[in-house]
Design goal:
This protein is an alpha/beta fold and 409 residues long. The protein folds into two domains: 105 residues, Carboxypeptidase-like, regulatory domain (Immunoglobulin-like); 211 residues, Collagenase (Catalytic Domain) (3-Layer(aba) Sandwich). Helix content is 20%, strand content 21%. It binds zinc ion.
Length: 409
């Protein structure tokens, strides 16, 4: 064990040394399919309608080499040709849109479609005083409060009183699935290239998350779902559509209690306040440490079989910035996003034991040097942003078997 620990430390230190990005940008070369260079054809589109986004700045960064920026043309396209490299990522920015970051495979020629979401219409006046759990004038008249839709005013909406509820019905065991194989002509690689299906998701902030981010808890959670979609859309053909975004009332949950009430509270809240929302899963973002070393949990694996079991919680109490130090070594990125992606995947039947530790090497970054395994590995410190072929196949087959995904035009 001593030798192993020393080896890990050595890798970590080497990664640290390489994080400094020299000022010289990566050299640009003319495109040629057989030139041994990597040509990356990117198209930036608007999320929701697929329209090209012209004039967006696309910045390609290669770990240890540098970065280079281009502007998208009228058809939303931008192309880069560089020496094959690992640790590639791209940042796309345009005024009026939420900035996006994505990992790219720069080891060979690739084409990517990146969707950008518009910045939520600046309905200021959010933040400020948190709502009271059961006060307000809507109670007692039989009219449920308006459904939060990601743009609503959940910060101000009075919530109906509720009690925590345990699930009714049964999660059961996962029956056999009709395997769904993708069309291999749509994307290279194993178990990739499915047509897009949309799942409706609800996201609830706990009181600690709202307290930590009183002015931007909504946009932080919207960005998290957007960023999860980078990977869900590319690898699974699944888009998480944020159809309910709300917060749990003050006092409904307490960090550090370790009482495992997060899902029951969320269930009671949804039944009382969003009874009409037809969502496929409900996630609770916790802005503080609730359960010690456990970072997230689902009601049950494949819980999406039953609406009452399709609940998860995940901790979002760490920095999402690359290079943020987490734990004693901290060469891994974006634990909140990985945790959200992991628990969401459990609800649609992804399993730890379908993990492998192979694919992530293609997009490994120096800032994510410990993220070498499938995201379903049971230690988030080793998770990458990749799903293994087995998990991809199971998740996609499960969603199609249940019929919970809506085709996206
Ligand atoms: Zn897990």
């Amino acid at each position: 064990m001593r030798a192993l620990a020393a080896a890990v430390l050595l890798v970590a230190l080497a990664g640290c040394v390489e994080i400094a990005i020299p000022s010289a940008p990566p050299a640009e070369r003319p495109a040629d399919p057989d030139d041994g260079l990597s040509t990356l054809d990117l198209v930036v589109v608007e999320s929701g309608n697929g329209r090209p986004v012209a004039g967006a700045e696309v910045r390609l960064s290669i770990a240890g080499v540098g970065s280079i920026a281009k502007t998208t043309a009228a058809d939303g396209s931008a192309a880069f040709t560089v020496e094959p490299a690992t640790g590639c990522s791209v940042t796309v920015a345009k005024a009026g849109f939420q900035q996006r970051k994505a990992a790219l495979d720069c080891t060979g020629d690739q084409a990517y479609r990146l969707s950008l979401a518009r910045t939520p219409s600046a309905s200021s006046g959010q933040g400020g005083s948190p709502p009271q759990g059961s006060s307000g004038g809507t109670g007692g008249n039989g009219t449920p409060p308006a459904e939060g839709n990601g743009t609503g005013e959940g910060n101000e909406t009075a919530h109906r009183p509720f009690e925590p509820q345990e699930p009714s019905g049964s999660c059961g065991s996962l029956g056999s699935l009709e395997p769904v194989a993708p069309d291999p002509t749509l994307a290279g690689g194993l178990a990739l290239g499915w047509p897009l299906l949309e799942l409706d998701v609800a996201l609830l902030a706990d009181p600690a998350f709202v307290a930590a981010h009183p002015d931007d808890w909504r946009s932080l959670l919207e960005a998290l779902v957007q960023d999860a979609n980078l990977y869900y859309e590319d690898q699974l053909g699944l888009r998480l559509n944020l159809s309910v975004l709300d917060r749990l009332p003050d006092g409904s949950l307490a960090p550090g209690s370790g009482d495992g009430r997060q899902r029951a509270v969320a269930r009671g809240f949804m039944h009382a306040n969003h009874a009409l929302a037809d969502v496929d899963m409900v996630a609770v973002a916790l802005g503080a440490d609730y359960e010690g070393s456990v970072a997230g949990q689902v009601e049950c694996v494949h819980g999406a079989v039953s609406p009452d079991y399709s609940y998860l919680w995940f901790e979002y109490d760490q920095d999402r910035d690359p290079g943020a130090l987490v734990g004693s070594i901290g060469i891994f990125e974006d634990i909140p996003l990985k945790t959200y992606m992991h628990e969401t995947a459990h609800l649609i039947a992804a399993h730890h034991h379908y993990s492998d530790c192979a694919e992530s090497y293609t997009d490994l970054r120096t800032s994510d040097a410990l993220g070498v395994c499938d995201i379903m590995i049971n230690d988030v410190g080793l998770a990458s942003f990749r799903f293994s072929p087995t998990n991809r196949l199971v998740m996609r087959s499960f969603v199609e078997d249940l019929g919970i995904g809506e085709p996206v035009a």
